Amino acid sequence: MIDESIAGMRKEYTRRSLDVSDVQPEPVAQFQQWFEQAVSAALPEPNAMTLATVSAEGKPAARVVLLKGIENNAFLFYTNYESRKGQDIARHPYVALTFFWAELERQVRIEGVAQKVSEAQSADYFHSRPRASQIGAWVSPQSQPVADRQALDARQQAFTEKFAGQEVPKPAHWGGYAVVPHRVEFWQGRPSRLHDRVLYTRQKEDRWQISRLAP
Hints:
Elements: H1 4-7, H2 27-40, E1 48-54, E2 60-66, E3 69-71, E4 74-80, H3 84-91, E5 94-101, E6 106-116, H4 119-126, H5 131-139, H6 149-162, E7 174-188, E8 196-202, E9 208-213
Helix pairs in contact: 5-6
């Protein structure tokens, strides 16, 4: 049975439009333009993105992570390599990212390949984080069962004492990924659910084909 209070939820999108003639020749440049507009609009955590991975059994999983940079036309994020997402990527490096900026009636969908960044780059970012977050990378056996919250608190206390008075080293199991896009879609909400969708598809020699999709 469908809850009518949920089924009846809808919003008419009217703020903007999007056409093939409006966009940049390359998707990363178009993304940066939209991202800057999301930041200027003071949206909450505009760098929050849904990361979807696939397990060894072909089962999808998704979670929200934070974009931490764009370099060499790739999207960067950092995590525990031994986490569920890290294990998925190790087996199947194809991933998807989704940004949704509700206030701007926009979303961006990115499909590509995730590859580890260098140890040096991971270390540089790790040491730019707040000290508590650095210690947290040691504390959490991410995605593994833990007895209770007290067990985490005890580990936090232990690592805080262990690294007292010294630089916190980056754990070997922690670092970054660069997602190299192969397909990027920009979605702009429009009235009557006839949304604007502009798709970039990577061709040979890093050229991009731009097309409009039906909503």
